Amino acid sequence: MKKAGRRFFPVICALCLTGLLAGASCSNPIYNTPGAFDPDEATAITVTPPTKRLYYWGENLDMADASANIHYRGPGVDSKLNQKIKDSQVSGFDSRKGGIQTIAVTLEGRSDYFDIALLPFSPADDDKTIPMSLSPNEEKIIQNSLGGAWKVYIFESASRAVVRPSGNGKDGTYGSKGDVVFNAPAVASGYIMAISFTNGDTSYPLFYRLTVQ
User: Fold this and answer.
1) Euclidean distance between CA atoms 105 and 64, whole angstroms
2) Which of 86, 130, 109 is nearest to 38 (CA)?
3) Considering the entire predicted model, what is its pTM?
4) Are 208 and 131 in contact (CB under 8 A)?
5) Per-domain residue ranges for the chain?
6) Which of 52, 136, 156, 182 has the most CB atoms in a 10 Å sphere around its CB?
7) pLDDT digits 0-9 by tens, 86-137
């Protein structure tokens, strides 16, 4: 019996070792827990906004030259680049609501955002914008009567492309409290500027016809 025990001992050890390894494999959530790791799951999307970011009352959102990149969890799964965006994937636009609107684009359960400005009148009603004249790069302060958050966007009148104010490297200028402080664009031209003020449930926009000369 001793010889038989010696003969079966390595077999038993091998079976135990196999069981331990199998158990370790089964307990690894990366590979075996349902839903814990899906290499084809989208982790983020990045949206390139459309050129047209300034709208007037009643206009439709134009996403013709917008696109999205979809990024996936698995390192071996290629991102989908320059994907066309469908109307059903866009939300947040209201052609009857003046001010700065945040537009959401959602693909495969992930979202990215950009802002547009909508003027609640037609292009012919230029008298509804406040005239302002500044020198290139001139600093301007506008009183924030609400004392809450604000956003400023400056648009080229011709192309309706958003102008990035110098220094912050992103679209628009944002403030949480205090007066609105911004710099005029460096290029002499005509612009449309939209400012939205919000404080709690109170929100109102101001629109300027900005001449830089």
Assistant:
1) 14
2) 109
3) 0.78
4) yes
5) 42-119, 128-212
6) 182
7) 999 999 999 999 999 999 999 999 999 999 999 999 988 989 999 999 999 9
How far is residue 90's CA from residue 79's CA, in Å, rounded to a whole number?
Answer: 20
Identify the CATH assignment for 128-212 out of 2.70.50.50, 1.10.3080.10, 1.10.1200.10, 2.60.120.1060: 2.70.50.50
Strands 110-119 vs 54-56: parallel, antiparallel or unpaired: parallel
User: How far, in Å, CA of 105 to CA of 109, rounded?
Assistant: 10
Q: Which amino acid, one-letter code, is at 174?
A: Y
Q: Is 42-119 a domain of CATH 2.60.40.3630?
A: yes
pLDDT in tens, 173-183: 889 889 999 99
Task: Give me Rg for the CA atoms of the chain.
Answer: 28
Task: Examine the pLDDT at 16 and tell me if it is beyond 90.
Answer: no
